[in-house]
Amino acid sequence: MExxxxxxxxxxxxxxxxxxxxxxxxxxxIKKGLWAKFYKVIPALLMCYLIPAILNSTGIISAKESNxxxxxxxxxxxxxLVLMTLSIDLKAIFNLGPKALIMFFTxxxxxxxxxxxxxxxxxxxxxxxxxxxxxxxxxxGLATLAGSWIGGGANQAAxxxxxxxxxxxxxxxxxxxxxxxxIWMAVVLIGIGRTKAIDKWLKADSSAITELKEKVSSYTAxxxxxxxxxxxxxxxxxxxGAVGIAHWGSESISNFLKDNFETFNDKTSALSxxxxxxxxxxxxxxxxxxxxxxxxAKTYEGAGASKLGSIFIYILVATIGxxxxxxxxxxxxxxxxxxxxxxxxxxxxxxxxAKLIKAPYFFLAVGSQANVGGAASAPxxxxxxxxxxxxxGVLLAVLGYVVGTWSAYACAILMQIASGN
Length: 421
Fold this sequence. Notes:
mainly alpha
């Protein structure tokens, strides 16, 4: 019988998460004493993620019994993207250069080759861990991880359809996905607190990123005003109105593709990922934000549009953290071992290429999360560097959807060869 958590009412759970966020922000604002020393080591953003994970792991709250992640990812995330792209400077983003794309595709390559290498390593130590025949073959299950880690849920579902992994065992792969991806995200967040030191070690030229941040900051300073109730109502109207349009548009596009083109209904086709309403929702919300940046709506950045968007992002971070059960790490050490080795290869390749091309840590972190975390976490990580950079995370995550199915398919074939099938 499944254990019931202490609090199952989402109103209570949401209240707890907001208290956690308030506690972290209050303690991280203290500039002297123990808390100041603590946050020099542990980034505040990581604590916003880790404390909900602890609450979930100890049975106080449960992600399985909550709809908060769904609400945050479907409503607050697109709203935050609109608010954060109001003041976007597309020309400055293009001036960031090709390193962002190089690091993204390096991350993709790391996932493609990481899976088969992990199978070879674990198979040499524990052959039974990578065994299985027919629908029970472990490589088939790991193909769904490749789909998730290059794109997201739609690509993961496509891999499950293509390679027909045993549905009864699929939960184990979802478990590895959650554990390993969340551990890696925690590592990435820790790195954000040490960006300057990492960039120095990489000998990276982060001048384009700094220039973009300064440009946005100086523009914000020039239009800053004390926000009124009218400002807040208009900003929320723009953001949540855009969310409504994004949901309507995403459903309309998805249904149109499925109703008029048979290939989009074929779950074994790479094009099936484009029927994902989440993909279109994120794309439409970002596009609306970009279009608004060419209008007078851009001046609402001076009333705190990106700060309001950041609030939504931090709530999303807390709900992502809530999905992590720290105790699960020890439930299936063999599969977790494959996942961890796989992620180490992904990370190692990113670090190697970043060192070679002197790419800033920002490109490494966002390029990785655009693959592994997709549209739900890439903007979170990008915004942690600066709210104006959230759109970079979104654009790369959208690219992940595009290349996800084909890249994951290539990875699966390599894993099949590596496992001897």
